[in-house]
């Protein structure tokens, strides 16, 4: 355990020495901070406009005939989920690549194993160190969200809102670590580090950008801004009745989307934050129950990735001879 923690500590410290990685990390933080700031200001403006209109109405001696609009602050976090989908995956890939590249480039694998350190210590020490760094990064993003809500927007959150943010924090860490384990595996499995990185970014391109975009493009409801069915005045039963006639098409579209871990992460994240409006008034346990498949898919792929990393570290003799 001590050896594993020592390697984890070294791995954590080494991350900060990579200039390229630092640039990508700063980019994620800047983009998410900008998204949060803009969304918070928009929310504050909406509240201010409503309060001004209400004050004007009351000053005229009139009583509002409609109930106050319900505003859901977590809806503002759609941009954060989008950025973690794309840049978070890149961070995971770079972490996995750098974790092995520095050992291969400096030829320290055999040196590590000449000490009383096992392969198990190495693989789980590296995973632990990177997991701690990813966790710290996502927790920092969550702290920025809460600070922006309170200090800039004057937004007060409920206990359930905090639970939802915590759930997406955990899901985001798992999502990024899926790409870490993929890059870690390929960086050992491939003789050429450049080939490993190229394969990783090809997978990133296909599963993070292409497949989700194909699924979104094939969705009939996305063909009109605001939703095709909404623009036609269809309610949910009518929408379901129409789509039932195209079940084969819809199943194919859904299958394409489900090939992507990014889409599983997005669906669960959007549901928890209420980006999909039907989840806004749904109890939190019911949201988790509704999204169980997407959540389990992300964590299942992470577990598979950790198993694959351990397997390849034990079986690949070339990793120890470089």
UniProtKB/TrEMBL annotation:
Q: Which UniProt keywords apply?
A: Membrane, Transmembrane, Transmembrane helix
Instruction: Cite the GO molecular-function annotations of the record.
Output: ABC-type transporter activity
- Enumerate the transmembrane spans: 21-43, 83-101, 122-153, 165-186, 193-214, 292-314
Q: Which GO terms describe its cellular component?
A: plasma membrane
Pfam families according to UniProt: ABC2_membrane_2 (PF12679)
> This protein is called what?
ABC-2 type transport system permease protein
Record organism: Methanolobus vulcani
User: Species lineage, top-down?
Assistant: Archaea, Methanobacteriati, Methanobacteriota, Stenosarchaea group, Methanomicrobia
């Amino acid at each position: 355990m001590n050896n594993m923690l020592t390697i984890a500590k070294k791995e954590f410290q080494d991350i900060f020495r990579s200039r390229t990685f630092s640039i990508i990390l700063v980019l994620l933080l800047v983009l998410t901070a900008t998204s949060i700031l803009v969304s918070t200001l928009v929310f504050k403006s909406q509240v201010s406009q409503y309060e001004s209109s209400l004050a004007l109405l009351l000053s005229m001696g009139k009583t509002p005939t409609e109930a106050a609009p319900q505003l859901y602050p977590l809806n503002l976090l759609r941009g954060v989920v989008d950025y973690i989908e794309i840049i978070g995956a890149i961070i995971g890939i770079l972490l996995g690549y750098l974790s092995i590249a520095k050992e291969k480039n400096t030829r320290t694998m055999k040196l590590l194993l000449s000490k009383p350190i096992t392969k198990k210590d190495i693989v789980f020490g590296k995973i632990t160190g990177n997991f701690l760094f990813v966790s710290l990064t996502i927790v920092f993003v969550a702290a920025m969200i809460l600070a922006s809500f309170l200090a800039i927007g004057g937004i007060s959150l409920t206990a359930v809102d905090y639970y939802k943010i915590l759930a997406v924090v955990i899901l985001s860490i798992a999502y990024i670590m899926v790409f870490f384990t993929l890059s870690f595996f390929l960086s050992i499995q491939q003789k050429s580090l450049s080939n490993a990185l190229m394969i990783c970014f090809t997978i990133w391109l296909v599963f993070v950008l292409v497949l989700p975009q194909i699924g979104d493009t094939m969705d009939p409801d996305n063909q009109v801004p605001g939703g095709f069915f909404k623009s036609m005045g269809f309610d949910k039963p009518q929408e379901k009745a129409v789509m039932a006639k195209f079940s084969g098409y819809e199943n194919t579209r859904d299958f394409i989307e489900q090939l992507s871990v990014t889409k599983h992460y997005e669906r669960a994240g959007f549901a928890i934050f209420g980006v999909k409006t039907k989840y806004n008034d749904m109890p939190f346990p019911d949201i988790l129950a509704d999204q169980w498949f997407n959540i389990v898919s992300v964590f299942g792929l992470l577990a598979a990735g950790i198993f694959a990393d351990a397997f390849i570290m034990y079986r690949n003799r070339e990793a120890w001879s470089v």
